[in-house]
Amino acid sequence: MTATTEAPATTAAGMPSAPAPAISLAGVTKTFQSGRESFTAVGGLDLDIQAGEFFSLLGPSGCGKTTTMRMIAGFEEPTTGVVRLDGTDVTDVAPNHRDVNMVFQSYALFPHLSVADNVAFGLKRKRVGKAETDRRVTEMLELVELGDQAKRKPSQLSGGQRQRVALARALVNQPRALLLDEPLAALDLKLRQAMQMELKRIQRDIGITFIYVTHDQGEALTMSDRIAVMNGGYVEQLGTPAEIYERPATRFVAEFIGTSNLLTGTAAATTSEGTDVRLDCGQHVRIAERLSEGTSVDITVRPEKIQLSTEPPDASMSRVRGTVTDTVYLGSSTHYTVLIGSDTATGTEIVVFQQNDRDLSAADAIAGRGSEVWLSWRPTHSYLLPS
């Protein structure tokens, strides 16, 4: 029988249609039942993840990110909704028949097998020929930079090296997507940061879809093409790292991603250049948006956007007066806490990150604890949180 190839799908206008997402969730929910009580871990999730994307599910413990990944892998069945891989409904397909592999926080390596045999384990179970197995194992070990460790046992490797073995074992099966559930959580900070860059390099080199679960915001910002920030079983915001950091969609995202100063107030007056906002602490700042007088306002300002000085800033800037209550020296930068307002009961604390690009003694003289200072930032950096 002669094999036939289907023509590519086309739109009504005769143009080729866009390829199906690598992974698609439509109306997916997951409810766990315990006696008479039920708990919704994931609620009404709609999500499309594109082929070759490094996609992160980010959020605090209990937000539903691991449950979402387990439904993609097939380890959990959705209560409602559909899971598709490359456009094919796999909602009821067993995990071992889905073309995805999963890497866990615990490496789950076989201690009695060598590195090479650990990587080859899945291929041998699939009865892949020896020559092909050896070729693919060698290729994967070179990819994760462990080519010279093939004969060692897992106990002879560092934590980072064992994580690379687990990654090679998952990738050697050539899955369409790789699911990674907090794989770096057990590593120390320096090694974790190094492995973040390695994971991104590997993903870029092989070009397959990575879905990464983490509660570490820095990890997600460093590696991801896009991030879904989850809270209470729902996605609060979906976007690129820059979009989520610079323009948080909700108060939760603003507080969870990085450090942010959240200021509340009321629109006092509008000009052609924006709105003057009277903060709850009594001082005034400017925002670029034009709002009706009396509108309640929630704004967020990132600490690195704020300048600290003893001299009054230009009147075109948002500016407030305050008192330095704390300083933390971190080498490349110093973090200041500044109280604006008359006292701690009615005032607001603002955190400022300043690069240490001047003489340390001069910086101490300008902004030591108890110093009266000005804080200023561009009105466009007062990001208005949606209602």
From TrEMBL:
Function: Part of the ABC transporter complex PotABCD involved in spermidine/putrescine import. Responsible for energy coupling to the transport system.
Molecular function per GO: ATP binding
Keywords carried by this UniProt record: ATP-binding, Cell membrane, Membrane, Nucleotide-binding, Translocase, Transport
SMART domains noted in UniProt: AAA
The organism of origin for this protein: Haloechinothrix salitolerans
InterPro entries: AAA+_ATPase, ABC_SmlMolc_Importer, ABC_transporter-like_ATP-bd, ABC_transporter-like_CS, Mo/tungstate-bd_C_term_dom, P-loop_NTPase, PotA-like, PotA_ATP-bd
EC number: 7.6.2.11
Protein name listed in UniProt: Spermidine/putrescine import ATP-binding protein PotA
Keyword Cytoplasm belongs to the record: no
Gene3D superfamilies to which the protein is assigned, alphabetical: 2.40.50.100, P-loop containing nucleotide triphosphate hydrolases (3.40.50.300)
Catalytically driven reaction(s): ATP + H2O + polyamine-[polyamine-binding protein]Side 1 = ADP + phosphate + polyamineSide 2 + [polyamine-binding protein]Side 1
Family: Belongs to the ABC transporter superfamily. Spermidine/putrescine importer (TC 3.A.1.11.1) family.
SUPFAM superfamilies listed in its UniProt record: MOP-like, P-loop containing nucleoside triphosphate hydrolases
Assembly, per entry: The complex is composed of two ATP-binding proteins (PotA), two transmembrane proteins (PotB and PotC) and a solute-binding protein (PotD).
